[in-house]
Model the fold of this input.
Amino acid sequence: MMNKLTDIIKKIQPLEIGLFILFFIYLLFDIKTPDVINPYLSSPIGIVFIILMTLFLFLYTNPIVGIMSLFVAYELIRRSSSPFMPSTTIMTTTPTEERRNFELKAMNKPKPDTLEEEVVSHMAPIGKSEQGNYIETSFKPISDDLLGGSTI
Done:
């Protein structure tokens, strides 16, 4: 078992070591995917490309680098499909719910109150009446026995 592990480690090429270190840094630190690349990676074609590259690395490189590429591919897809952050450019990908809400809010600015709404808000007595005053009296109501009535 130990002999196989040393054989695998001896077969690692310098490029694979560099790729492993790069993958390790990407997984260890929260590196943000650039906004320019984000729409391409979160599109269906981008996800297929990431999966194909991961499959290629898994099949044709050292098994350690291949397994690490699976984790990197997952993280890359997860980080690139984060909710839409407002920006000035319009992307051509399918909009997410957050992006649609942001665009709708930008298109539908709050309208000023109409004359009728202003008049109603100033003149309506609802919610603007004085607090009720309670008067204490010596009167105590008494109820008679209910004959044949049911108690609910």
